[in-house]
């Protein structure tokens, strides 16, 4: 029984993820704006070498500047290895 509706699959447009396209475009612009020497620049650690996990957690104040994720991960791995939580 045909109720006058066409069941053609061509009536449904292909899905386009506009959010992903915008994200990718923004990412490419961000990568293009970085200078080559800036990408390989070794930074001084934001967290001092004698900082401990506990001293970083006892304050509720924000850090004076952003801390790179890799630096936080290194600190956590060191703590976990000392406490035998990470092997």
Automatic annotation (TrEMBL):
- Name-wise, this protein is Gag1-like clamp domain-containing protein
- Look up the domain of life of the source: Eukaryota
Q: Which organism is it from?
A: Cuscuta campestris
Entries under InterPro entries matching the protein: Gag1-like_clamp
Looking up Pfam families in the UniProt record yields:
clamp_Gag1-like
Ranges for domain Gag1-like clamp: 10-87
């Amino acid at each position: 029984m045909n109720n006058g509706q066409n069941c053609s699959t061509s009536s449904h447009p292909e899905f386009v993820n506009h959010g992903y396209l915008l994200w990718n475009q923004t990412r490419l612009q961000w990568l293009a704006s970085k200078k080559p020497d800036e990408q390989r620049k070794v930074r001084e650690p934001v967290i001092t070498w004698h900082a401990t996990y506990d001293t970083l957690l006892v304050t509720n104040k924000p850090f004076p500047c952003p801390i790179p994720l890799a630096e936080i991960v290194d600190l956590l791995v060191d703590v976990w290895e000392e406490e035998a939580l990470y092997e």
